[in-house]
């Protein structure tokens, strides 16, 4: 696998401005996220260690310069919020980058139903590998900006999200510690929706939270890995899930028509493109059972990772099918 070498950033110090930092960072991201990879272990292409260390240092210096500038610059009520959110610019730039990368993948989606599922799985695996490497490369963004945003109640789960349910069980004389405990309980309740069970390992808790982060609205501040997954959902998966609207040429005539009695208890309804593709995969006679299970289980996992909730009809159908397939038993000895 080719390794991108240490690219010079020119005469400009990468830490002096967003444009200089991004010019230094983008070629590495393009290599990690977008370049072809044939690694059998699913790893993203590597970059030169010198460039890796240089980017890490540039991010550190960039945040340091911003923090120092905010500390010595006089603030007013109008710009005090800006001083407390240094790093927003690079975070927004990363969000735009992952959105563009996901849209580029969506443009290559084939029209055939089975081919669509066969395209989504390796495309997401490659995107996910690049996102993981980007998350490690930009660890200082997570430590400096994302962690602080979460501490300031700007993360995937906010106090305002659970205020009503928490307030019902909070007495006027409850301490802040009690309120915090009840908030943590609400967080665990949310994580259970993503597969967490009491007593699970730390790894499973982290996975459940990453899914919850990817499911959050675009205004929530989340780690770089989950940021990429959220954009894959918003730019690629959700358009495929969208159900087309049925419109008539003459609405007045449609309103005056007597509706026909449905032929069955569940009359056919328009389905999104991905739902139609899944139906084809699960019912087609042109693929064997092994391939059918591989596609269904792979897509079910992809939908969970990018933040499609468990009560979504397509996830329920895929999960039901995957659970119905018996595990492969070893052949008895001769």
SSE diagram, text form:
Layout: H1 18-34, H2 49-72, H3 80-83, H4 88-107, H5 113-137, H6 139-151, H7 159-167, H8 176-192, H9 202-214, H10 224-241, H11 251-256, H12 273-283, H13 289-305, H14 313-324
Give an account of the 3D structure.
The chain has helices spanning 18-34, 49-72, 80-83, 88-107, 113-137, 139-151, 159-167, 176-192, 202-214, 224-241, 251-256, 273-283, 289-305, 313-324. It has 334 residues and is mostly helical. The protein has a domain at 157-215. Helix 5 crosses helix 12 and helix 9 crosses helix 10 (224-241). The protein is globular. The protein starts with 17 loop residues before the first helix and ends in a 10-residue tail after the last helix. 26% of the residues are buried. It comes from Hypholoma sublateritium (strain FD-334 SS-4).
Main features:
334 residues; mainly alpha; 14 helices; 62% helix; globular; Cullin_repeat-like_dom_sf
Summarize the structure.
The chain has 334 residues and is mostly helical. It is 62% helix and 0% strand.
Which strand-content bin applies to the residues?
under 5%
Unreliable spans are 75-84, 261-267
Shape: globular
Following the backbone from N to C, one meets helices and strands in this order, namely HHHHHHHHHHHHHH
Q: Largest sheet, if any?
A: none
Number of strands: 0
User: What's the gyration radius in Å?
Assistant: 24 Å
Mean pLDDT: 84
* Percentage of residues assigned to helices: 55-70%
Q: Distance between termini?
A: 43 Å
């Amino acid at each position: 696998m080719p390794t991108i070498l240490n690219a010079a950033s020119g005469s400009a110090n990468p830490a002096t401005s967003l444009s200089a930092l991004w010019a230094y960072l983008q070629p590495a991201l393009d290599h990690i996220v977008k370049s072809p990879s044939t690694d059998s272990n699913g790893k993203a292409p590597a970059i030169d260690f010198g460039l890796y260390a240089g980017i890490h240092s540039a991010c550190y210096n960039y945040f340091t310069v911003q923090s120092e500038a905010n500390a010595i610059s006089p603030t007013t009520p109008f710009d005090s919020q800006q001083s407390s959110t240094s790093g927003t610019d690079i975070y927004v730039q990363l969000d735009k980058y992952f959105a563009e990368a996901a849209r580029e993948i969506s443009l290559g989606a084939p029209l055939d139903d089975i081919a669509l599922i066969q395209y989504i799985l390796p495309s997401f695996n490659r995107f996910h590998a690049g996102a993981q490497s980007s998350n490690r490369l930009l660890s200082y963004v997570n430590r400096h900006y994302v962690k602080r945003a979460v501490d300031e109640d700007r993360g995937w789960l906010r106090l305002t999200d659970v205020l009503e349910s928490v307030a019902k069980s909070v007495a006027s004389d409850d301490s802040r510690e009690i309120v915090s405990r009840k908030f943590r309980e609400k967080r665990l309740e949310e994580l259970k929706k993503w597969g967490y069970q009491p007593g699970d390992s730390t790894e499973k808790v982290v996975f459940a939270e990453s899914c919850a982060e990817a499911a959050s609205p675009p205004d929530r501040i989340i780690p770089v890995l989950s940021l990429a997954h959220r954009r894959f959902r918003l730019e690629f998966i959700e358009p495929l899930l969208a159900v087309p609207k049925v419109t008539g040429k003459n609405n007045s005539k449609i309103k005056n028509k007597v509706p026909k009695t449905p032929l069955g208890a569940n009359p056919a309804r328009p389905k999104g493109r991905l739902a139609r593709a899944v139906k084809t995969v699960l019912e087609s006679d042109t693929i064997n059972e092994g391939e059918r299970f591989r596609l269904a289980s792979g897509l079910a996992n992809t939908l969970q990772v990018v933040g499609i909730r468990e009560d979504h009809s397509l996830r329920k159908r895929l999960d039901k099918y995957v659970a119905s397939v018996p595990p492969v038993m070893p052949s008895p000895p001769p």
